[in-house]
């Protein structure tokens, strides 16, 4: 029978973590002294260390930073950005405006990268089981279109005929694959999906920012769930910028539309009580 643990031991284990060690005068992140990390490790490399437990190579950190930088903002028409700006006009602090915005980054707005990487990963698993790239893509798309009428995650954009961010990210991904930093497998899967969709529909449905960043996060070995978290980190930069900009303006309680544009009322006609 194991010896009963003391109250102190139970307290120390209550929030046990592999991430940080801290006591007066000492801070270690994943075993590294914070003073050694400061000035020597970039922010993307720090994100990698905190999530993965080891430091990335310089090239891996740069590629991660490229993906994060690409998705920081998409304008006030994006719900998260609009919410940050509206919240700022209500007189709340920067943290409240940011939290309000981040809280809407879910399955519909912000989750497509995670969904795209799950889709890529399923195809990669089929290939590991012996299927060719073309067969794996075709079978997964057959299944997808049979089960849903929605869009394939990571492809198509409601504003851009071609999302200007995606081709550049794929170009960089291919460059890093040629240099041996990554193997290029997820880039090949994504491009094969795009080609198969085009053959089915008779027109190209180009990859978007979610599909392209999912390629990079997959190439770097991040699981799908973390892809959404990385998008939240990325978009938080734009959210902060817009919340700060709006907070410097005199607007108060600014709604989603100018006051002369009111909503369409679709309820009961006027009636007496």
Automatic annotation (TrEMBL):
KW Lipid biosynthesis (keyword) present: no
Enzyme class label: transferase
Entry annotated with the keyword Lyase: yes
Entry keyword set: Lyase, Transferase
GO biological process: carbohydrate metabolic process; tricarboxylic acid cycle
Pathway the protein contributes to: Carbohydrate metabolism; tricarboxylic acid cycle; isocitrate from oxaloacetate: step 1/2
Ranges annotated as spanning the membrane: none
Any one cellular-component term (Gene Ontology): cytosol
GO MF annotations in UniProt: citrate synthase activity; lyase activity
EC number(s) on file: 2.3.3.16
CDD domains reported for this sequence: CCL_ACL-C (cd06100)
Family from the record: Belongs to the citrate synthase family.
Protein's UniProt name: citrate synthase (unknown stereospecificity)
């Amino acid at each position: 029978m194991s010896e009963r643990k003391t109250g102190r031991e139970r307290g120390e284990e209550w929030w046990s973590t592999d991430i940080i060690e801290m006591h007066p005068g000492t801070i270690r992140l994943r075993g590294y002294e914070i003073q050694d990390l400061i000035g020597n490790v970039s922010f993307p490399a720090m994100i990698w260390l905190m999530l993965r437990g080891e430091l990335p190579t310089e090239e891996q950190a740069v590629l991660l930073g490229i993906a994060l930088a690409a998705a920081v903002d998409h304008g006030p028409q994006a719900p998260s950005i609009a919410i940050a700006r509206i919240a700022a006009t209500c007189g709340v602090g920067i943290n409240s405006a940011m939290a309000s915005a981040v809280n809407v980054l879910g399955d519909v707005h912000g989750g497509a990268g995670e969904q795209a990487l799950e889709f890529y990963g399923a195809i990669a698993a089929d290939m590991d089981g012996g299927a060719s790239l073309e067969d794996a893509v075709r079978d997964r798309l057959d299944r997808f279109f049979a089960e849903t009428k929605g869009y394939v995650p990571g492809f198509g954009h409601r504003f851009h005929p071609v999302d200007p961010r995606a081709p550049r990210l794929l170009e960089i991904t291919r460059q890093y694959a040629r240099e041996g930093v990554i193997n290029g497998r997820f880039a090949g899967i994504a491009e094969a999906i795009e080609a198969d969709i085009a053959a089915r529909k008779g027109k190209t449905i180009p990859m978007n920012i979610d599909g392209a960043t999912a390629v990079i996060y997959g190439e770097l070995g991040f699981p799908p769930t973390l892809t959404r978290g990385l998008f939240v980190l990325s978009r938080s930069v734009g959210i902060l910028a817009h919340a700060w900009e709006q907070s410097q303006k005199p607007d108060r309680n600014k709604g989603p539309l100018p006051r002369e544009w009111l909503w369409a009322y679709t309820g009961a006609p006027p009636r007496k009580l």
